[in-house]
Design brief:
The structure holds three protein chains of three kinds. By secondary structure, chain A is of the alpha+beta class. Chain A folds into two domains: about 230 residues, P-loop containing nucleotide triphosphate hydrolases (Rossmann fold); about 90 residues, Nucleic acid-binding proteins (OB fold (Dihydrolipoamide Acetyltransferase, E2P)). The radius of gyration of chain A is 24 Å and the shape is globular. Chain B has a two-stranded antiparallel sheet with strand order 1-2. In chain B, a hairpin with a 2-residue loop joins strand 1 and strand 2. The N terminus and C terminus of chain B are likely disordered. Classes of the chains: A alpha+beta, B mainly alpha, C mainly alpha.
Chain lengths: ~325, ~325, ~280
């Protein structure tokens, strides 16, 4: 059964329409990631589900009930903010208890719920501290803990990792993934501009661009069958190569797309011949940037280390089964 | 599409709260500001007196200007606009405002520049500078009245000791020096305020500008004129206008330091005299109204000219 | 590179002049207040006597003690009332988007520019109508005209800079606007409240025109009026010693406050004025 349902939802500020005709249906317990470049409307959409933004048109339902006109606190949702938004003058315990107090729960009940959530997140030792005395990662946990105590049906995350440093980001990401498993009945909606976060966390990804939904699907669906050139370029790292020259014309397409990992590189022979411009060595992988005459710049990914250097001449062979073809409007062509 | 209102309950709740929250303030401001102002203007067109406010009758613009015909081609103008004492007090007020604000700006700028330097004891100096500002206007007026006393005053003593004057000066009593006395006290008392506002402007000038100018070998005076001054100009301008509006309504200092003299009577003093001392309530109200119009005009001009950022959109 | 010696000397001379002119009049008032009788009529630069007679005369003789209490009462109530009214108003003006907000802010600002004399006759009528003439409440009431716009203005500027997400978190937690103010914003705002409260207090403590006009008996007067009205039977009998003692008594607490809260006051003043 769907917990969150959006029907023809739109949002405009004055005459500017920032979201158009959004139709989505999220299953109970699903982990859904909204991803897209900045300004695509993903945060606005999340805030509309939260109730912090008015819904200009269309309908939002949670557990089958219309929610457009319901106060945020009564929607059965909880939200983790980008800046954590902990109340600076309250202790961790008070931060987690504040929402429950507003809901007029009894003291022992509040106590029990806070204990339970803090145990789950291993922040029991921090309950008497103020947010100022916590590290970034700890604040993040408290923010999540505050959301958990509300026992929400839907859990909203607004770019929760963007204020953490790179090392902590990976740990926290794993923890959030674990959270999804520990709360199997809770629907998670997670907003990010980082496609790696989207790919690793999501059951399903919603790609937004310019105020419309480009594609909805599992990470692998998006990777293997992107519904548009935009999605093809946005999902996957390094980015898919888009070639407009002879390879595209040969297939009767405007754009010929091939991912760097789907090109075989050889010193002896191949479909295309080019000169290496630059190699980036990551240890586990090597990215080789090749300038192919009449085709353009092509990025190739090779597993492991490679002895190829700038200036070398190499031969490339794209895997025909992994070619994506698009028309001049960015729509995929069957092929 | 369903008939959902575009504004959600949260938005409606918040808008309703906004007006509920504003209501007490708006009611208060109406009762203490808008209504009394309206009544003042109304009184200025009536024959109201202190004891007969409720029976005040409309008399048109008689309090402002009236031509009384004596017959036989003889006649005379009466009313505020024909009153030489009123125009004298307008002149006094303008003179006071221009001179005091000019000196306060220059002195304020000097003090701000000093306080903007790094030196030992800066905190103490800043605290000392604030003292005149903290002293109630009435107290400073009386303190200075004592210091400017013609016989026992320390100012005369100093000036005589330095050989600058031969005879003691009756600072506050003599019409020639009364305005100077008022100006001295006001400048002394208000310069700290000016200095603080300008200092705030100075501290917003990024330090690396000075570093860059130093590296380029530009002399300090030129740096001040070409870099610092243009950058702090907006802050100075705001401070000047605030002070000027304040100076135009000056009352306390004049009333206490130099009572009852044509040499220093300002518009506010003139208005209050008529309202409560001479029992010319309507006439005094007319003077109040004119003063209000002058200040309103300046304020509006200022807000238009600077297009003040009221909603904090730029911040 | 060290600046030349004359520059350093000149700079410190300037500093000395600035400090001296600022401090001397108050110093001289203290000095005078400690002199009595004949000593008063000799010009002294350094303290010669330490006679508390003037203070004793002021504090025991008449109604000056009562007048101090009047001032304390009026200023305190004014501060409390205007802060209460201003906090909610500032929340609405800084945090809630609604039509007419810009106009309202403009109104508040323009009221703070009102010359007091312009409302004097109208206010006099209102106060007589309410039966508040010669009552301290008339001052509490009328002082709102300058403390309220000022506190609203400063608190609005301050609240505007509080993070939006904290408020949104509170909304998600189910807090009403009033709860957000009380439980979330107020604890974060006490520095701004102290500053504005202090400035409003000083303003109310120093006010003269209304206090002079709306009070008719000595025992109801506030200290500025009391000090302004101390006089002798003739020009030559003005009790300067008493006046200076009274001046020192009402000023010392203010100077102390200003010195203690120096930083807060400076930030409050500039927040109130430099917003162009």
């Amino acid at each position: 059964m769907a917990t969150v349902e959006l029907t023809n939802v739109s949002k405009s500020y004055g005459n500017v329409e920032v979201l158009r005709d959004i139709n989505l249906s999220l299953e109970k317990g699903e982990f859904v990631v909204f991803v897209g470049p900045s300004g695509c409307g993903k945060s606005t959409l999340l805030r509309m589900i939260a109730g912090l933004e008015d819904i200009s048109g269309g309908e939002l339902r949670i557990d089958g009930k219309p929610m457009n006109d319901v106060l945020p606190a009564q929607r059965g949702i909880a939200m983790v903010f980008q800046s954590y938004a902990l109340y600076p003058h309250m202790t961790v315990f008070e931060n987690m208890a504040f929402g429950l107090e507003q809901a007029r729960l009894s003291k022992p009940e509040i106590e029990a719920r806070v204990r339970e959530a803090s145990k789950m997140l291993q922040i029991e030792a921090l309950l008497d501290r103020k947010p100022k005395q916590l590290s970034g990662g700890q604040r993040q946990r408290v923010a999540i803990g505050r959301a958990i105590t509300r026992d929400p049906r839907v859990f909203l995350f607004d770019e929760p990792l963007s204020n953490l440093d790179a090392a902590l980001r990976v740990d926290t990401r794993l923890e959030i993934a674990g959270l999804g498993e520990r709360l199997p009945d809770t629907t998670m909606i997670y907003v990010t501009h980082d496609q790696v976060e989207a790919m690793t966390l999501a059951d399903r990804i919603v790609v937004l661009n310019g105020g419309i939904v480009e594609q909805v699907g599992t990470p692998m669906e998006l990777y293997e069958k992107p519904a548009s050139q935009f999605v093809a370029g946005f999902i996957g790292s390094p980015r898919m190569n888009f070639l407009t020259g002879p390879p595209a014309k040969a297939h009767g397409a405007a754009v010929y797309g091939i991912r760097p990992e789907h090109i075989a590189l050889s010193r002896e022979s191949g479909d295309w011949t080019g000169r290496v411009v630059l190699t980036e060595r990551l240890g586990s992988d090597t990215f080789v940037h090749v300038d192919v005459e009449a085709v353009g710049a092509v990025n190739v990914r090779i597993e492991g280390r490679s002895e190829i250097h700038g200036g070398d001449t190499v031969h490339l062979t794209p895997d025909p089964a992994s070619v994506h073809l698009f028309d001049n409007r960015g729509r995929p062509l069957a092929g | 599409m369903s008939a959902n209102p575009v504004k959600s309950r949260l938005s409606r709740n918040r808008t309703r709260s906004a007006w509920l929250f504003l209501l007490p303030m708006l009611v208060t401001l109406f009762v203490v500001a808008a209504w009394p102002l309206g009544r003042t203007v109304w009184f200025s067109f009536t024959d109201a007196s202190l004891d007969m406010m409720s029976e005040a009758r409309w008399v048109g613009i008689r309090n402002y200007l009236e031509y009384v015909d004596f017959g036989g081609g003889e006649g005379q103008y009466y009313g505020l606009l024909a009153d030489a004492r009123w125009w004298r007090s307008v002149w006094n007020t303008v003179l006071f405002a221009v001179v005091s604000v000019s000196f306060e700006t220059v002195f304020g700028l000097i003090i701000a520049l000093v306080l903007n330097q790094q030196f030992r004891g800066r905190g103490l100096v800043r605290a000392a500078v604030l003292i005149p500002w903290a002293i109630p206007t009435i107290v400073s007026a009386r303190m200075w009245a004592w210091m400017l006393h013609d016989q026992f005053g320390i100012i005369n003593d100093m000036l005589q000791g330095l050989g600058l004057i031969a005879e003691p000066i009756a600072w506050t009593a003599s019409p020639d020096t009364a305005m100077i006395a008022v100006l001295i006290v006001d400048i002394w008392k208000t310069t700290p305020f000016m200095a603080l506002l300008i200092l705030a402007g100075l501290q917003m000038v990024p330090g690396d500008i000075y570093e860059a100018a130093k590296l380029d070998g530009i002399p300090a005076w030129r740096v001040f004129r070409k870099v610092t001054l243009p950058l702090i100009m907006p802050a100075v301008l705001v401070a000047v206008v605030f002070r000027a509006l304040d100076a135009l309504r000056v009352f306390d200092i004049v009333y206490v330091l130099t009572p009852n003299t044509d040499a220093t009577r300002t518009m506010s003093v003139y208005a209050r005299e008529n309202l409560f001392d001479y029992d010319q309530f309507a006439y005094g109200s007319a003077a109040s109204t004119l003063l209000f119009l002058i200040i309103a005009l300046i304020t509006i001009t200022f807000i238009m000219a600077t297009r003040m950022d009221l909603e904090g959109k730029r911040s | 590179m060290k600046p030349p010696v004359w520059q350093t000397v000149g700079f410190y001379a300037l500093v000395a002049i600035i400090v001296l002119q600022a401090v001397f009049p108050f110093y001289y008032a203290i000095l005078t207040s400690l002199e009595d009788g004949q000593a008063l009529f000799e010009v002294n630069y350094l303290p010669k006597a330490l006679d508390l007679a003037n203070y004793r005369a002021m504090l025991t003789g008449g109604v000056f003690g009562k007048q101090i209490l009047n001032s304390v009462f009026v200023a305190t109530v004014v501060v409390i009332l205007s802060l209460c009214l201003a906090v909610t108003a500032a929340f609405a003006l800084s945090r809630i988007r609604f039509r007419g907000r810009g106009l309202l802010l403009l109104t508040v600002l323009s009221v703070s520019m009102f010359p007091q004399i312009a409302v004097l006759s109208g206010l006099f009528e209102v106060i007589r109508f309410l039966g508040l003439f010669n009552s301290l409440w008339s001052l509490v009431f009328s002082y709102m005209i300058f403390t309220l716009p000022f506190t609203v203005w400063v608190l609005t500027t301050f609240m505007r800079n509080l993070p939006v997400e904290i408020e949104e978190a509170a909304i998600m937690d189910g807090a009403s606007s009033l709860t957000i103010i009380r439980r979330v914003f107020l604890p974060l705002m006490w520095p701004a409240m102290v500053t504005t409260g202090l400035l409003a207090f000083i303003h109310a403590w120093n006010e003269f025109l209304f206090a002079l006009t709306f009070m008719s008996t000595d025992s109801q007067r506030t200290v500025p009026v009391a000090i302004a009205l101390i006089s002798g039977r003739s020009e030559f009998e003005i009790p300067w010693g008493n006046i200076m003692a009274a001046s020192v008594i009402v000023t010392l607490p203010l100077v102390a406050l200003v010195l203690v809260f120096q930083r807060k006051i400076v930030s409050g003043l500039t927040a109130g004025a430099v917003k162009g």
